[in-house]
Structures
1.
Amino acid sequence: MPLISMFFGVLIRMYQFDNKQHHAPHIHAEHQGDKAVYLLETGERIAGTMPPNKERLIQAWLLIHKEDLLIDWELALNGEVPFRIDPLR
């Protein structure tokens, strides 16, 4: 699963061909053993757990990069490697 960004210890990934289980554009986030799935459109967590402070960072990042993430989603659905997206600074 390609890593598309990393910030403040949070890893953001996007699987290729990953529209079967969650049926909506989403990313996978990991932080120190916690794993969660977030919708690209709303930033809502739809699976897993994440510390509240990291969740706020992830949701802010999703809002800032929504257009780039949707482009990456289309690439991933077609089996292509999504491009890297700038981290929060």
2.
Amino acid sequence: MMNKKILVAYFSASGTTKRAASLLAKAANADLFEIEPATPYTAADLDWTNKKSRSSLEMNDPSSRPAIKRRLETMADYDAVFLGFPVWWYTAPTIVKTFLESYDFSGKTIVLFATSGGSGLGKTESALKQCAPNATWKGGKTVNGASEASLKSWVESLNL
């Protein structure tokens, strides 16, 4: 793992995934990159109980690809990417697809991690693989409340 250059890229709507990503970056000795929407989400946008809220509309539209604020110009430098997000509607928010479709992941390993109020990753990996089919995918996991030590153990078990 010491020879591999690792990135932890994440989208966080409320700060929960950001905290997990920061711990994971420390545990994996990785760089950190926040996937920020060009138009930030408001509390009203994130109201999943409102069928007309921005997040509900995006998640119900398979072609939705929210714009990202900035590009990571050094993506080619990384061998492995941990990709994190909150679970929305039992899958990744559509902005994660925007991120994956913005780069060439050929020859890179992608590992998913997520935070969730109750559900796991479900079929998220198979849905996201379509956005980066030339990457090598390793099984991801939810990291709610994970410690830096448990994340380090997980990273080491992946044999990146």
